[in-house]
Amino acid sequence: MKIDRIEVREITLPLRDPFETSFGRTTAKEFLLVSVSADGVTGYGECVADSDPYYLPETNGTVLHVLQDFLVPLLLRLDVTHPRDVWPGLARVRGHEMAKAALEMAVWELWARREGVPLGRVLGGEKTQIESGVSIGLQKDESALLSRVETEIAAGYRRIKIKIKPGHDRGLVRAVRARFGAVPLMVDANSAYTLDDVAVLRELDEMDLMMIEQPLAWNDIVDHAALQSELRTRVCLDESIRSPDDARHALDLGACRIINIKAGRVGGFATSLAVHDLCRARGIPVWCGGMLESGIGRLANVHLQTLHGFSLPGDTSASARYFEEDLVDPPVTVSREGLIAVPTGPGIGHEIVWARVDRATRGRHEWVA
Fold first, then answer.
1. Do 299 and 348 touch, CB atoms closer than 8 A?
2. 161 catalytic, yes or no?
3. Among 29, 100, 161, 262, the one annotated catalytic
4. For residue 127, which of 250, 263, 310 has the smallest C-alpha distance?
5. What is the model's pLDDT at position 71?
6. How far is CA 234 from the centre of its chain?
7. pLDDT attached to residue 102
8. pLDDT at res. 43
9. Catalytic residue among 29, 100, 161, 163
């Protein structure tokens, strides 16, 4: 299969409510939507980079540059016998996992559409529904957080994640525990702490958390190993894992006991499958994180989680939590039991509403073979 056309759209979607973490406050999701065409069929991939380099170094600007000048020319020259060919075909470009993932995931989606099967099936997944958890950003005060947790529990979500940062941590967790008892609960620090904060993190150790996600530096494994040895609570790594080798090194060092797989962060579906298989072989749970994706990227995450190694509820929640009007129809919904049904149509399985995409488009770029 020869790719004959690639398009990138610059998209802006306003969020219903601001989303705040330890590294900033987001009011709109700005992202790149990649379309890849071959044999009269088109597949779609959503880039998870942000407009700023606060989560990881890549931004929409760097992704667009690397796509245009390096990755798109490589892909247009590649003879694709299977989507797994894309990752090694782009390997001469070092790093830039988010840029590679946007292209690679679009090829997987194209392949599934061409075969007339759901994306999850070509990935090797078998589940017909997945468990949904929810990620709650930093709120203005404790009362607002408790109100938000109450709303999400009532909506059926099977796991609550709250964002924390220094000065906004132990008291918040205690308040949630006091109000909601044994609700499945985890915290996400987005790299806000250091080993000097081990006493604070030890206090969280007493609060029966499912995990503490990425407490230390975004590019660290060694200090996380030291921290994990001090805690009973399982450390989960997110930002630190950008490849299957990163995952192997982290597990070898004992830096974590859970891994969050975001396909866009590790370079795409093929590398996500490699991390999944490694963790499953070692008995390490994995789950799928989120990056405020539109329904296009959200459904890609749904299909990834059809693999059996995804044994913990992910951050894939309903479209309506984030957007007044999503880019797909029907939108992604969560049942009262906290489950998302896996679409059975070709590719991501829901229709992309191009009138909405056009309204959200701020720029377009096209390359042909």
1. yes
2. no
3. 262
4. 310
5. 98
6. 20
7. 98
8. 98
9. 163
| pLDDT tens per residue across span 170-204 | 999 999 999 999 899 999 999 999 999 999 999 99
Instruction: Work out the number of other CB atoms within 10 angstroms of the CB of residue 141.
Output: 10
Determine the Cα angle at 344 with ends 340 and 347, to 5°. Answer: 105
Cα atoms in the Cβ-side hemisphere of radius 13 Å centred on 203: 10
- Residue 127 annotated among the catalytic residues of the structure: no
Exposure string of 12-51, with b = 16+ CB inside 10 Å and e = fewer, is ebeeeeebbbbbeebeebbbbbbbbbbeebbbbbbbbbbe
Tell which residue, 278, 322, 338, 336, has the closest CA to residue 129: 338
pLDDT at 20: 77
What does the pLDDT read at residue 19?
82
Question: Rounded to the nearest 5 degrees, what angle is found at the Cα of 159, between the Cα atoms of 157 and 165?
Answer: 120
Low-confidence stretches of the chain (pLDDT beneath 50): none
Cβ–Cβ < 8 Å for 340, 332: yes
CA–CA dist 147, 229 (Å, integer): 35
3-state secondary structure of 187: strand
